[in-house]
């Protein structure tokens, strides 16, 4: 979409949002399996989670450990959608994610998955200007401060949900300036290897960047057909080793996602290399794959 068209759509919606809104909350709790608690699939990441019939809840029913929401700041409201023309005043970050997560954590006595203390990752992909959007998001997260993993004065305190900010890179500036925050930053492969020409540059710590994500298709030629080139396998494993050595997790987007042997081959190599999150729009497909491979 052209930039002028995007701006026009945002301006029009901003005017529509000028008045007060009565925004319905999403269903607070996903249905639990009676008498049976299968382990969460912490490596499963629901790409564009909000496009499923029941945002968040479908991913939780499939036991995913990470969900992704694209975020627009429009007229002071934080709306979830893929493109400006899809924006709906009723589809807010609060109604689709924050409120149902808070209700679920209350019902489960402090965790998203009953009996499992590990945080769910909420990846928030900012689509509007990063600094302004993050400042508004920060205000919303503080309303749910007991829900989120927190960074305060050099220390990280885990919570039921860890918010990680992706998308527009300008969000990093206000985040780095905070001595206390309720979100973290999604790095890129360039953050693993700082520019050698900048002597003062050092890798950002995991307390700011716990996750390093990048585009698979821009870094690897292999799409799952035929053998994985050894040089690319070695590069993948070096990336994971470097990140893990710094306490950071790894995710790639734009991996093959059509059901078939190519997708399974790529997922298998990602698991073997220790990649922390597998990206998909196919909730049932990845759930079945991880159960088959006993990967959690």
TrEMBL record:
<feature type="signal peptide">
    <location>
        <begin position="1"/>
        <end position="30"/>
    </location>
</feature>
<dbReference type="InterPro" id="IPR051236">
    <property type="entry name" value="HAT_RTT109-like"/>
</dbReference>
<dbReference type="InterPro" id="IPR017946">
    <property type="entry name" value="PLC-like_Pdiesterase_TIM-brl"/>
</dbReference>
<protein>
    <recommendedName>
        <fullName>Altered inheritance of mitochondria protein 6</fullName>
    </recommendedName>
</protein>
<dbReference type="Pfam" id="PF13653">
    <property type="entry name" value="GDPD_2"/>
</dbReference>
<keyword id="KW-0732">Signal</keyword>
<dbReference type="InterPro" id="IPR039559">
    <property type="entry name" value="AIM6_PI-PLC-like_dom"/>
</dbReference>
<dbReference type="InterPro" id="IPR006311">
    <property type="entry name" value="TAT_signal"/>
</dbReference>
